[in-house]
Specification:
Blueprint lengths: L34 E5 L7 E6 L2 E4 L11 H5 L3 H15 L6 H4 L3 E3 L4 E2 L8 E4 L3 H11 L15 E3 L5 E3 L2 E4 L2 E4 L8 E4 L3 E2 L2 E7 L18 E8 L2 E2 H7 L13 E3 L4 E2 L7 E2 L17 H6 L1 E2 L2 E7 L1 H5 L5 E7 H4 L4 H9 L10 E3 L14 H4 L7 E2 L5 E2 L7 E8 L7 E11 L2 H5 L1
Parallel strand pairs: 6-22, 8-16, 9-26
Antiparallel strand pairs: 1-2, 1-5, 2-3, 3-4, 6-7, 10-11, 12-15, 13-14, 13-22, 14-16, 14-17, 18-19, 20-21, 20-25, 23-24, 25-26
Length: about 425
Amino acid sequence: MSTPRIDATHAADLRSWVESANDPAGDFPIQNLPFGRFRAPGEAAWRIGVAIGDQVLDLRAAGLVDHADMNRLMQATPPERRALRQALCDGLRQGSAQRAAFAPALVPQSAVEMGLPCEVGDYTDFYVGIHHATEIGRQFRPDHPLLPNYKWVPIGYHGRASTLQASGSSFHRPMGQAKAPDAAQPVLAPSARLDIELELGIFVGQPNAQGVPVRMQDAEQHLFGITLFNDWSARDIQGWEYQPLGPFLSKNFASTVSPWMVTMEALEPFRRPFARAAGEPDPLPYLDCADNRARGAIGIQMEVVLQTARMAREGHAGDVISRSNFAEAAYWTAAQLVAHHTVNGCALRAGDLFGSGTLSGPTREQSGSLLELTTGGKHPITLSNGERRGFLEDGDTIVLRAYCEREGARRIGFGECRGTVLPCFQAEAA
């Protein structure tokens, strides 16, 4: 792990000549500077951009990089990343002599298309949310909600990178096999229990060589940044298929990723000590180090907004149905995920994505899935316009948002992760 790096780029009183970046409620002040890929209408190729206020800075046009390959940029060493962050800050701060050079490289975010923040080769979904794991286990195994390995192994499975989608995309309700408890055999049908999963996406930067595990103290050097992530889930398909090898068709039809990677450097002011409750087992030595205990957790406040099709027609932005915090929901840290993923010699590459797993808090109101929030659909939630939801219906839009804030630091945000459910393709075709 890298040592703490609070520097002049994090100063709470730092302001930008891009006036929209100085809005105290905005997600993208000069203290943030997240990375993403964008293109103008009609363009085929992606460009590397950094969000500043309501603008995007084209890094190549600003003379900060000589290429447009985000995955190449993500392989930079920590000192190189910090140097680029300092150069961005120097050019965008109020009074900068580089304003004349940077200004022509700015494009309004509203005028461009945002894509996936990088090319994703491999995607692993973890299960770090202990409150989610406990509640889901309680629904299926009341006497033993957590399996014996949960508190020793960062549980994960290999997901499907080909169906990752950028925020703002829609997807068709999945078709699959499901079996009712009292049925003699399963049926093939559109999922009737379509759900959300409030997650964070953690992106690998520097690769490691195959066969060479990453030590805990070096793990965060291999991470580039964090996004919002919605791993849509078909719970009825999942319940029938997940034994004995885990999720398959219930997960791989779509997952939505927010466009901006908030860098590990930007998150430095929001670090917290990582400590488990009394009586919890200590991690095995390869998953433990002093730096992780001192600052391995990150305080990221998250929320879920549900907007029905009726709400959209009536100009209603939707209801916040859940709020939780990464530091309070996660049983494992980002560094531990890297160390565990590579302990067997697995090679990680720039652009590889880790899903955190559903990040629910300890109370029902902090549930990161409808499966928890409605107790498996048995207790539907009532929205502000009177509509009720046990699981998602066609036309529903889910928006995930997140931000970091603390006294003495400037609030930074993650933008939004938005996706809309369309009717099942097979059902439409019929």
